[in-house]
Amino acid sequence: LGIYILVVAQFGSFKLPLVILTPIPLTLIGIMLGHWLFHAAFTATSMIGFIALAGIIVRNSILLVDFINHQMREGADFAHAVVHSAAVRAKPIGLTALAAMIGAVFILDDPIFNGLAISLIFGILVSTVLTLVVIPVLYYAAMRKRVADLQQGALS
Fold first, then answer.
1. Fewest CB within a 10 Å sphere: which of 57, 79, 128, 145?
2. Shortest CA distance to 28 belongs to which of 5, 51, 61, 59?
């Protein structure tokens, strides 16, 4: 709820934060897959990893949405800006995700923080890939009518 309120304040929209927060549940796909592959129990530290992932994934989503908005302010076509955002921001987002995953590898064999490591590694892996696809698609679907109306209003 706190993240939602902050994103509403940043973008001045109630619908856009829902698009930005959509990938948070997607992290559960990776977390559950990782725990299943390692035959590990979902522990309290696994939940801490899930919460930490929320911040990482929301940051990635904000980067994509902000880049789309920036491209449109510079005069780019809406559809081009949406596609271009994922292509341009994929490398920095991927490198950040890789750094976090490598850091988590070092606590993978710790009996207490094993769940945290599994959550971070697999949650980041799956949600980063899905975020680079899901956020642009959802943003396009949610905002295309609004953008078309704004462009139509500017033409008349």
1. 145
2. 51
The total number of residues written for the chain in this structure: 156
Amino acid in the structure at residue 112? I
Q: Would the pTM count as exceeding 0.85? A: no
- Kindly state the greatest CA–CA separation across the chain: 65
pLDDT band at residue 26 using 50, 70 and 90 as cut-offs = confident
Percent helix, strand, coil in the chain, to 5, is 85, 0, 15
The C-alpha atoms of residue 111 and residue 104 are separated, in whole angstroms, by 13
* CA–CA distance, 22 with 28 (Å, rounded to integer): 12
Mean of pLDDT values over 64-77: 91
Give mean pLDDT, residues 31-45: 94
Return the closest-CA partner of residue 68 out of 53, 60, 59, 78. 78
Q: Hey, what are 111's tokens?
A: 């009996």
**One-letter identity of residue 49:** G
CA angle 91, 96, 100 (to 5 degrees): 145
Q: Which residue has the tokens 């309120």?
A: 5
Could you tell me if 121 and 105 are in contact, meaning their C-beta atoms sit under 8 angstroms apart? yes
Structure tokens of 83?
A: 């596609």
